[in-house]
Amino acid sequence: WQATLMNNLAVMHHSRGEYEKAFQMLEDAINCAQRSGYVRAQALALSSLGDLLTDLREIERAEECYDQALIIASQLGYSFLVFYVSVAKARIARYGNRLGVAETLLRDLFVHLKQNTSAGDEALIRMEYGCLLLNSNKTVEAMEELAHAINLYEQDGRVLEVCAGRLWLAAARMATGETDEVALQLTELLTAAKSLKEPAPLYVVAAEVQHWLEKFNLPQKTFAPLGQLFTRADEFTKSIPSIRRNLRRISKSAFIS
Questions:
Q1: What pLDDT does 227 receive?
Q2: CA 56, 61, 67, 68 torsion: positive or negative?
């Protein structure tokens, strides 16, 4: 139970943007789980560490964590974690521009949805598939998937995920010049974001969206409503090298390069 508690606390620190605290707690959780033989908690902590390292674009290390978590979860028949980690692996494949790999992973997961579906599972995969379609320049299809994911997350009361989806959907509409729809999405996004107790994960998404939008020659006024959000995203992006250095300094393992 100690390893599970440490993982839960680490996830809380991660959501607050407290990467050093989260990292140390996850290392301790993994070591504790290994010593006690509680492999389920080990898989969860490895998955959480993969999420943290993905934020910091330590992609190779993140994938190693996800691979280890996936092996354990598969052996245990822990279907939720198998599904979650598979989506995470698709995400980092997309980050590495391995779009074919990402699509194969996601299409395999869509089969799972037909067999054993939940609103959370479906929203998770549709959000990632929408992002993949955007990166594949299939904007119309991407907007359909993102809108579907947002609707599912709204039904489930997942405010952070709704905000992330609306941010991606607004970006897609910016790229297609649908200015009226952009204004609507941004209004709903910023209204929902005010209720977030821990907005740090949204800054990570905003940094990714901002990077994606850079390839479009859009007028600066298009981004005006997102000024504060993108400012915080810039601050996060600039802080990544410093966070990485701190993690290397405090690490007791090989989880950070």
A1: 79
A2: negative
Give the chain's end-to-end CA distance (angstroms, integer). Answer: 29
CB 125 within 8 A of CB 165: no
24-82 pLDDT, tens digit each: 999 999 999 999 999 999 999 999 999 999 999 999 999 999 999 999 999 999 988 99
**Residue linked to tokens 């330590």:** 58
Q: Rounded CA gap, 66 and 75, in Å?
A: 14
- pLDDT for 172: 86
List own/partner pairs for 77-81 with CB under 8 A and 24 or more apart. 78/40, 78/43, 79/116, 80/121, 81/43, 81/44, 81/47
Among candidate residues 92, 67, 70, the one with its CA nearest the CA of residue 81: 70
Scan for tokens 């990632």, then name that residue: 128
Provide the CB-side half-sphere exposure for 132 (13 A, CA): 26
Give the Cβ contact number of residue 250 at 10 Å: 13
Quote the CA–CA distance of 41 and 129 in Å, as a whole number. 28
**Residue 226 has what pLDDT?**
76
> pTM for the full model?
0.90
Give percent above pLDDT 90 in the chain.
Answer: 63
Q: How many residues belong to the chain?
A: 257
Task: Report the run of H or E that residue 187 belongs to, with start and end.
Answer: helix 179-193
Residues 6+ positions from 60 with CB-CB distance below 8 Å:
257
**Torsions phi, psi for 177 (to 5 deg):** 80, 15
